[in-house]
Amino acid sequence: MMRYFISGCILLLILVVGCKKSEIVQPPSEPEGTQHEIPWPTVADAPWPMFQADPQCTGRSRFRGPQQGKIAWTSQYKGSAEYPYVTVDRGGMIRFATGAMLDDSGRTTSAYVFSVDAAGSLKWKTDIFNPRMSGRAPTVSSSLTIDASGTIYAGSSNGYFYAINSDGTVKWKFKAGGGILSGYRGANIGLDGTIYFSSDKALFAMNPDGSVKWQLPTYPRSGVTFSPDGKTLYVPTSYSVDALDEAGTRKWSFPFSVALGMVSPLVDSQGNVYFVGGDTTFTSLGPEGKLRWQYHTVSHIDETTAPIMDPYGNVYFTTFEGLYSLDYSGQLRWKINVLRLGPQLVCDNEGMIYAGRYDGFMFAITSSGRFKWFLDPRPVLDYYHEENRGCPALGSDGRLYVLVRMSEIGSVALLAVE
Questions:
Q1: Torsion over CA of 58, 63, 68 and 72, rounded to 10 degrees?
Q2: What's 382's DSSP letter?
Q3: d(CA 128, CA 410)
Q4: At residue 74, what are phi and psi to the nearest 5 degrees?
Q5: Residues 199 and 238 sit within 8 Å (Cβ to Cβ)
Q6: Pseudo-torsion of CA 277, 356, 360, 72, nearest 10°?
Q7: Three-class secondary structure of residue 415 per DSSP
Q8: Which of 1, 16, 104, 387 lies 20 to 30 Å from 57, alpha-carbon distance?
């Protein structure tokens, strides 16, 4: 009898130990709003391949940004850029576009895409105002986009959309009619390789070979932001943000309280949408177009403001009075009164925010709202224009690349900040 009792105890012990070993250990839960990188194989695997870094327009880099706030180098180029945007390709190649190039007689003649190495040396430039259009100034009002093959997409005020090889040769160009604006944001690329951009006339969906897939005249001057799964396109109009499927069919529409212009939606990794929805209203929607929350500011929000999101789900945007930070649920975290901040911000992988004022001054601000550094570029630049509205870019080398308009007609300067 004792033998059976001992045997039973041993068996029970084995079962208990075995159960403990087989227990499933749950990973620690993430804080609400934690963001993750969304794989997007059709866009270049580069530090900053497009407007606001990625197809969700988060404005967030995978890399750490500059810690010192010092200018490593500057380089000056001919041309003017009302909205000077910068992209950083693989190998540290910096791409940007300018217009209003001047000939020897002082006439504006052309617009170019520039390719510059990480030391600021010009490698090539490609004319994107060819053919010349009578009565139209050669300007560039949208950023560049780089796809996985290294092709660079650029629009011009001559009404043509260009695909440029990585060596600067033109791959193809498409006559879209009207200036290429895309809400100043440039092209976006779907997971199937479809290229989306807009002109004064329509929103276009293009195949990679330059043929038209479809076009919608109801969405002129509209940029495109993608859902995390790539199946929904968020497209702003003057009165709403619309959600379209990949065929261009409208799924839902969220109206603005007032008529706006170049609204730039941001989409987080959970599929929620964020945008300026009124003069003093910042809005967040769920993936199905239902209102999550709205935040009302004291001062006016520029309609071209592009909000950004840090790795923790906190949102940042500017108003005429300063910089706002909201948490994932739409509650105010902090506000900094810095007058005349530009509408474009960028964020590094640690949540550091980089902002520029219209007069060219730059700031680095921690996620908790503390100033890290302040940069006055005047000691290294003779003089610069007091209406800088561009968006900087972060490189994998930890440098911030900023294109600024100079007061000299037809001149821009590229700054590398470390």
A1: -100
A2: S
A3: 16
A4: -135, 155
A5: no
A6: -150
A7: strand
A8: 387
Q: What angle do CA 305, 308, 310 make, to 5 degrees?
A: 160
- The CATH fold of domain 44-417: Methylamine Dehydrogenase; Chain H (2.130.10)
Q: Whole-prediction pTM value? A: 0.90
Which string of DSSP letters, residue by residue, matches 222-252? ---EE-TTS--EEEE-SSEEEEE-TTS-EEE
Strand partners, 212: 206
User: What pLDDT tens digit does each residue of the chain (418 aa) get?
Assistant: 445 445 555 444 444 445 444 455 556 688 989 999 999 999 999 999 999 999 999 999 999 999 999 999 999 887 776 667 899 999 999 999 887 665 555 566 788 899 999 999 999 999 988 877 766 777 777 789 999 999 999 988 888 999 999 999 999 999 997 778 655 688 999 999 999 999 888 999 999 999 999 999 988 888 899 999 999 999 998 889 999 999 999 999 999 877 776 778 999 999 999 999 888 999 999 999 999 999 999 888 877 788 999 999 999 999 988 999 999 999 999 999 987 787 789 999 999 999 988 777 889 999 999 999 999 887 777 665 555 666 889 999 999 999 887 766 567 889 999 9
- Which H or E run contains 86? strand 86-88
Amino acid present at 34: T
Amino acid at 210: G
Cα first-last separation, the chain: 81
Three-state SS for 151? coil
Please, which residues bridge with residue 404 across strands? 413
Tokens of 280: 């003093």
* Beta sheet of 362-365, edge-to-edge order: 341-347, 353-357, 362-365, 371-375
Strand partners, 225: 234
* Pick from 296, 137, 161: nearest CA to 215: 161
Q: In the block, which residue shows the tokens 């921690």?
A: 366
Residue type, 357: R
- Distance in angstroms (rounded) separating the CA atoms of residues 289 and 272: 9
Count of CB atoms situated within 10 Å of the CB of 101: 20
∠ CA 394-397-400, nearest 5°, is 30
